[in-house]
Amino acid sequence: MSARNGAALRVIPLGGLGEIGRNMMLYEQGDDVIAVDVGLMFPEEHMPGVDLVIPDLRYLLSNPERLRAVFLTHGHEDHIGALPFLMRALRDHGKPLPPVFCTQLTRGLVQVKLREHRLLDETHVQVIEPGQTIEAGSFSVEPFGVSHSIPDSVGFIIQTALGPVVHTGDFKIDHTPVMGQHTDLTRLAEVGREGVVLLAADSTYAEIEGHTPSEQTVADALDRAIGEAPGRVIVATFASLISRVQIVIDAAERYDLRVFVTGRSMVNNVQMARELGYLDVPDGILMNVREMQEHPDSRTVVISTGAQGEPTAALTRMASGDHQHIAITEGDTVILSSNPIPGNEALVDRNIDNLFRAGARVVYNRIAPVHVRGHAAREELKIVHRLVQPRHFAGIHGEHRHLVMHRELAIDLGIAEDDAFVLSDGDVLEISEDGAAIVDVVPADYVYVDGIGIGDVDHIVLRDRRRLASDGMCVVVVAVDRRRGALVGVPQVLLHGFVGPEEEELITERVCQLVASLAAGEGGRFDWTDWRETLEDEVARLLYRETHRRPVVLPVTVDAPSGERSGALQRSATTEE
Question: For residue 342, what pLDDT is reported?
Answer without folding.
Answer: 65
